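Reply to dn_fold:

You asked what the input looked like. This is it:
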Amino acid sequence: MNQQLERFEAPTMSEALDKIRSKFGNEAMIVGSRTFRRGGVFGVGGSHFVEVFVADTRSRTEQLRREAAERATSARANSSSSLVASAAAGRTSATGSSGSKESRRAVATPELGRLSESLGQIREEIHLLLERSSGEHGGFTHPFLRECYELLLRHEVEPRIADAVVRDIACLKLPSGYPDRTSVLTIVRSQLSRVFKPNPPLPVGDGPRIIVLIGPTGVGKTTTIAKLASRAKVHQRRKVGLITLDTFRIGAVDQLKQYAEIFKVPVQVVRDPAELEKAVAASRKAGDELVFIDSAGRSHRDELKMSELREFLAVIPEAEVHLVLSTTTHPSTVQSIADRFAPIGFDRVILTKLDESVSIGPVVGALVDIGRPVSFITDGQNVPKDIVPADPDRLVDLVVKPLAN
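and this is what came back:
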């Protein structure tokens, strides 16, 4: 093959492409790439590096240009001679034109043959290089796909989710040339938003809308329910009622009552399912539009407490049940919590403590597996602030937000 292959190495694909641009500009062709680890002991530790193979097409391109120019000059000279001879023989100018076309056709045929042969050699070498690098980083060898994959991994998205997202991107028409960071981010954002369930508004029926928060201890259910109630009362001008089932935790009732007093929202404390049924009936009679119910935190491994929660929810089948999960919890534990609460039944998920998390990238896989929409996200302790409705685009923002240096 006439083109000379050159190798570039850098910690990331972006840095490798910067090196390639600085040397070749646009006169180079990426023919393969791979990643490898340097340093460490027996494969443990060390740093990731990217290796990119580039064909220098500058000399061949210039050579083809010179050959094409020389042949064009020769063709014009032959054409002129043919025209003079034709005029002397009394031929028409149309015949001369036909001869010129045939001459150009004859010149073009050998040149196209050489170009075709050169392209065939390039394809063969690309095939070999890509085979050698397959399996690295999910097997993505196209530079644009590799950039997308690495972007997701940098934000701690599980490899299986990153792989699925990038395989969807691979079905699209990919931009040509070097991967542009803005294009990579735009396409990753668009495809990543598809993994999250949309959060459509629930239909409004007769009577109050009842929202129950469930979840393990320590995820911020009481603070979250105070935010939701105050938000509805102060910002939406809705008539709100509060009910708490959390009579187990010391100070839980007092904490909710303090919030309720500030925002002038009535609170009812119930101790068993029969009292809950009466409390909901009282809220309905009072004309409450929204009733928020705070449940006691349950260990997802405590079957007795989970059974008690099921009994409470059985008397209010019309309620929306939101599972509250902290983004500071390990992803495998998040999945375990969701699995244990699944038999109780929940409609949506609320994510809390985003202010204590670098990114929600680690829990994306768990959210995909849970398969429920995220209704709200919280990012602080301020009431009624620090809570916003969730949607796929907002969740993507939290996944790919800029990393701290």
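The chain is about 50% helix and 15% strand.
Hope that clears it up.
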